[in-house]
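#structure-requests
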Amino acid sequence: MSNMSHDSVSRRDFLRTTTCGAAAVGLGAMATGTLAAPTASKPATTFKKPPLPYGKLGRTGFPVTLISFGAIRISERLGTRITKGVIDAGVNLIHTSASYMGGNSITAIADLFRTDKSYRDKVFLCLKSFNPDSEKEIDEMLKMLGTDHTDALLTTFEKADPRRLEAIQKQQEALIKKGKLKHTGFVCHGDMHGVMELTLEKAPKFFEVTLLAMRMLPLGKDKTSDDSTRFLKNLKAFRENGIGILSMKSGAKGAVEQGADVFLPHAKAVLDAGCNSVLTSVNSFEQIDMIKTLDLKSRHMTDDEKKAAAAFLDDRPQACLMCARCRKVCPQGLPVNDLMRIRMYNDEYGWPDHARSEFSTLSLDAKRLACACGDCTTCTQVCPIGLAGAGTVRHVAEMFV
């Protein structure tokens, strides 16, 4: 995959590929692995060719810029200005959620859409949702944003649960029929292997977009492992089934903050691994200007870029792989994998408010949590990097006492 020229997307090809596949035929078909994406209720919006390097986002056919915007850190007027600056720079995919910054992320984007409605049509809008059993959450986000649809819905899919898969499919089929959704999707930062493999087994052609945690990519020195090999195999299978892949938690945030000399090699490495776009948060106009200057016309990495990409990953703090091996092993029934992710938001990303928000969804009492975790080593024994453990769990609990 040495050539990363702008994947040519003609207007005819785009219009043809952005319509979804045949209508889904129910749970019986899902069980045999033949369930396809439902048919969209109206033609997909056409987009102009972006000024930044881009590629095709799986079966959607959308010409997505190789760098996309995760709006997890924006709020208020500065967030609106940042969003405008990102879009003006040429980035054409935005991801947000009502859970980000206590709802302030969506508010900041909504203020831009309300001020100039043309900005809604300039982006492929991805919304993260948590509840596939109700449309209320989706309706509220669409109302806030002043739009009648989202281009992709990324419903949380954290465990390899066939019932969750069925619920997501049922909801997204209904949303497409009502014109509230263009393209199917999900987000996972839980049991990556299990969710990807269940999707490939039961519904390989249903989803068109996915946002995946990239912790298991072998991007640093000597990082190849059974986990990375398995993850790359599943990632390849996703691409072969036409699923557009957005990356998250690859380390892009930290790389952006260190400038083009670090971010460019990192982005090339993530793209070369098989992602269609590197999703990253941006919180300054200097970072926006840097993204505009990146030479991403080719994926080819020089020896210096390979060294820079590996050095950046090797210098990062110990990072959870999100392999979910620790998810069900705690004798006390603690959600260890969720606690490791919350630690990441607080310690590695420096997002204490988001960490607190994520912790609140677990309905755990911090004081009881600290006491509940004893000195056993069950989770440590299954953790491939030795991160999970009593000390780490108590550290997370102490953040919220």
